[in-house]
Design goal:
The chain has about 260 residues and is an alpha+beta fold. It is about 25% helix and about 30% strand.
């Protein structure tokens, strides 16, 4: 790793459409932390020819420097899981893990729009994606485990940890595992703008006069919160803000992606 970027190697280097690639900490960390579901790939056993892949929740942070800027240095990825799940046990299995941990690959993806061109060949999507490679180890230090739990909770819904019964019970701590992934390489790939047309089609007024082209922006929209049957309190500000800010940010990002290539 050098400067403010993850180091490039054959595993992480984007080869096709290289202008869409990014390796800087800020871009990659933002994509991962804004993604509600991460897909984690790993080798379940040495005699299984197929890799396993699981949808998980996680967040990037630094236990040793909690206030570290996401754009100024590498961060670890913390993943949440149940103590008896297969993945949580594998970092200690010498059949698939090393002293550094269990090798894993993590993918985070955001869908920002459908790009409609004159030809189906040039149809596309606007997107933000990141792929990370690293070694996963189970967090055994109780304070770091609590840090990981709080980080994941507040990354999903800001301020939720402090607005919950946030001192976990002993049974909750025992049934929850946190994996820390030490990132070795990472890259992002981002597509913005409108359709890229074939030059011949662009000059064909007959084709251009019959076919609509453009971008249908897309984003995740949060609905009106529905209280639980046993709920006894009014909707708190942090949940209202989560819905409002999330919806505004999602719409803004999708629409800015359309205009980004024009700037």
């Amino acid at each position: 790793m050098s400067g403010n970027t993850y180091s490039k190697d054959p595993r992480s280097t984007v080869n096709r459409l290289r202008k869409r690639a990014a390796y800087d900490y800020g871009t990659i960390h933002a994509i991962v932390n804004a993604c509600p579901i991460l897909h984690v790939s790993f080798t379940p056993s040495s005699d299984d020819p197929f890799p396993a892949i699981l949808p998980m929740i996680g967040a990037m942070g630094s236990f040793t420097s909690p206030s570290a800027s996401p754009s100024e240095g590498p961060l670890d990825l913390y993943l949440h899981g149940y103590v008896s799940s297969r993945l949580m046990k594998l970092p200690g299995n010498p059949d698939v893990a090393t002293e550094e941990g269990l090798p894993v690959a993590i993918a985070a993806s955001h869908f920002d729009g459908v790009v409609l061109a004159l030809s189906p060949f040039h149809h596309s999507l606007n997107y933000r994606s990141a792929v990370l490679h690293g070694y996963a180890l189970q967090v055994t230090d109780e304070q770091e485990k609590l840090y990981g739990m709080e980080l994941i909770t507040n990354t999903m819904v800001p301020e939720r940890w402090e607005n919950s019964r946030s001192q976990p019970l002993k049974t909750e701590m025992q049934s929850t595992s946190i994996l820390k992934v030490s990132i070795q390489t990472a890259s992002a790939k981002i597509r913005v703008g409108g359709p890229s047309e074939d030059r011949k089609d662009e000059k064909d007024e007959n084709v251009r006069g019959k076919i609509w082209t453009g971008v249908v922006p897309a984003w995740t929209a949060f609905g009106e919160p529905v209280p639980a049957d046993a709920n006894r309190v009014s909707l708190p500000p942090h949940v209202k803000d989560f819905v409002s800010v999330g919806n505004k940010d999602g719409e803004r990002t999708a629409k800015e992606a359309i205009e980004a290539q024009k700037k």
